[in-house]
């Protein structure tokens, strides 16, 4: 990539991919609330809605973006034009929902998107990438290009099986070996730990991977209330049990030791291109 197009960041952001083996486990809610929690802790956070064809971060937060990544790909807008403000200084790159083109980007379109993002001239500490669920090509590429992968799972057999399948594909086909696991919508911390242990018992038998238990988020009525009011639970109900867990996990993420901090956003998107090829 032409150095003339590199943004003027003085420090490199961490790129965290939030993904899941199946839908319905609260992955996007986790991405949003971790992003808001980090932002409330004084970090500059940019949240990329990478569920390109079925985006819903804007819906979850009651936002109405005038422009999306679809407008960037069409050449009508720049990335800078479409960034919107979320709660507590969180910034968001919105995608499109219900546009088939966005879920089937050609290599040229991917390159255009990557070049557009590389032109961003903003200071951030974290880029959080909220992918689609499952093992689609785009999901694998986003995860493989990120510095950290956070897999969200729920306490149900299908979620456990699909989380294992996701980790298996990433490790065997894309050389991702380190995963952070968050158990969502569990009855308590012990149930979350038991769920994590069940996953580890399977991966230890069949895969050469390292799993880290980030922690759990309880099944909290206030989470459902926040969804109904289209708000982040950590903003709307900061003292509920789920919010306390999100804040604690955000603090833990901020203390993660990253083995690869080279390249920041450019590194992420250049690797995304390489994986897609």
Can you walk through the features of this model?
Residues 1-10 have low confidence and may be disordered. This protein has a single domain (16-276), classed as P-loop containing nucleotide triphosphate hydrolases (Rossmann fold). By secondary structure, it is of the alpha/beta class. It contains 13 helices and 8 strands. Helix content is 46%, strand content 17%. It has an 8-stranded mixed β-sheet, sandwiched between helices. The two termini are 16 Å apart. β7, α9 (189-206) and β8 (210-218) form a beta-alpha-beta unit. α1 (27-40) crosses α12, α6 (107-118) runs antiparallel to α13 and α7 (137-145) packs antiparallel against α13 (264-276).
Features:
single chain, 46% helix, 8-stranded mixed beta sheet, globular, 277 residues
Average of the residue pLDDT scores: 87
CATH class reads Alpha Beta
Strand content: 15-25%
> Domains counted in the coordinates: how many?
1
The total strand number stands at 8
Number of helices: 13
Low-confidence stretches: 1-10
Gyration radius, to the nearest Å? 18 Å
Name the quaternary structure. single chain
Q: Can you identify the CATH superfamily?
A: P-loop containing nucleotide triphosphate hydrolases
Order of helices and strands: EHEHHHEEHHEHEHEHEHHHH
Describe the structure in brief.
The chain has 277 residues and is α/β, with parallel strands linked by helices.
């Amino acid at each position: 990539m032409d150095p003339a197009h590199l943004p003027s960041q003085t420090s490199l952001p961490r790129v965290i991919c939030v993904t899941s083996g199946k839908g319905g486990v609260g992955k996007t809610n986790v991405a949003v609330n971790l992003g808001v929690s980090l932002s409330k802790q004084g970090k500059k956070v940019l949240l990329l809605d990478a569920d390109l064809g079925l985006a819903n971060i804007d819906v979850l937060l009651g936002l109405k973006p005038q422009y999306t990544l679809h407008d960037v790909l069409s050449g009508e807008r720049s990335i800078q034009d479409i960034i919107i403000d979320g709660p507590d200084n969180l910034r968001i790159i919105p995608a499109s929902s219900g546009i088939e083109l966005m879920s089937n980007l050609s290599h040229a379109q991917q390159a255009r998107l990557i070049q557009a993002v590389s032109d961003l001239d903003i200071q951030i500490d974290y880029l959080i990438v909220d992918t689609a669920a499952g093992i689609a090509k785009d999901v694998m590429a986003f995860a493989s290009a990120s510095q950290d992968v956070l897999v969200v799972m729920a306490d149900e057999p299908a979620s456990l099986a699909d989380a294992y399948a996701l980790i298996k594909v990433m490790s065997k086909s894309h050389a991702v070996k380190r995963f952070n696991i968050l158990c969502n919508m569990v009855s308590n911390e012990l149930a979350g730990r038991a769920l994590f242990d069940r996953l580890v018992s399977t991966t230890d038998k069949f895969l050469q991977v390292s799993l880290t238990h980030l922690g759990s988020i309880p099944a909290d009525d206030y989470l459902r209330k926040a969804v109904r009011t289209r708000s982040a639970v950590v903003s709307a109900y900061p003292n509920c049990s789920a919010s306390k867990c999100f804040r604690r996990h955000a603090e833990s993420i901020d203390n993660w030791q990253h083995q690869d901090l080279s390249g920041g956003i450019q590194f992420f998107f250049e690797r995304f291109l390489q994986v897609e090829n």
